[in-house]
Design brief:
alpha+beta; Nuclear Transport Factor 2, Chain: A; six-stranded mixed beta sheet; 6 strands; globular
């Protein structure tokens, strides 16, 4: 299990470099937001996970739960971390798109390794979508959506996602 999620930026940057493409400063800042979000989850720390959210933001959880604003995100997560041994995230960024100088979208595949397990639980695979905004020179999360990736009509795609994420663990 990684102590932090710095591997996310390294893994994504290496994939881009293989195609003669490189991250811009704002793209790195958006990836760092995502890293901070996942580190908060992996550390089971509601304050840390809520920190990158804008005051006016939205979060849609894996189960469809919703939270509006960083304070509500914190309030939603605190009892989860207090009462559950949440699984650990591993993630692979698929894209970071700068829409404007002040808005970006990050998409990632994410998988979870349950407490005491050595491998991903494919039933917990998800697609993450993060919309970031830049205000007063600083990036924050405006929307984070955690969508189950079951691929009911494409089971081979679910297996491809799981294998891609497994490479980050083993």
């Amino acid at each position: 299990m990684p102590a932090d999620v710095d591997y996310i930026l390294h893994h994504y940057a290496a994939r881009l470099a293989a195609h003669d493409s490189f991250l811009q400063e704002d793209e790195i800042a958006v990836v760092r937001l995502y890293q901070q979000l996942l580190a908060g989850w992996n550390n089971r720390n509601a304050e840390e996970m809520a920190a990158p959210f804008a005051k006016e933001s939205e979060m849609i959880g894996f189960d469809g739960s919703e939270a509006s604003g960083s304070a509500e995100v914190h309030a939603h997560l605190a009892p989860i971390f207090a009462h559950h041994k949440t699984p650990i995230y591993y993630a692979s960024i698929k894209s970071v798109q700068l829409l404007t100088a002040d808005a970006a979208i990050l998409r990632a595949y994410a998988g979870l390794v349950p407490e005491g397990a050595a491998d991903l639980d494919p039933k917990l695979n998800a697609q993450h979508a993060l919309t970031a905004v830049k205000r007063d020179g600083s990036w924050s999360i405006a929307l984070f959506q955690n969508t189950p990736a079951q691929f009911h009509m494409e089971p081979e795609r679910r297996e491809q996602m799981t294998e891609e994420l497994r490479k980050l663990i083993h």
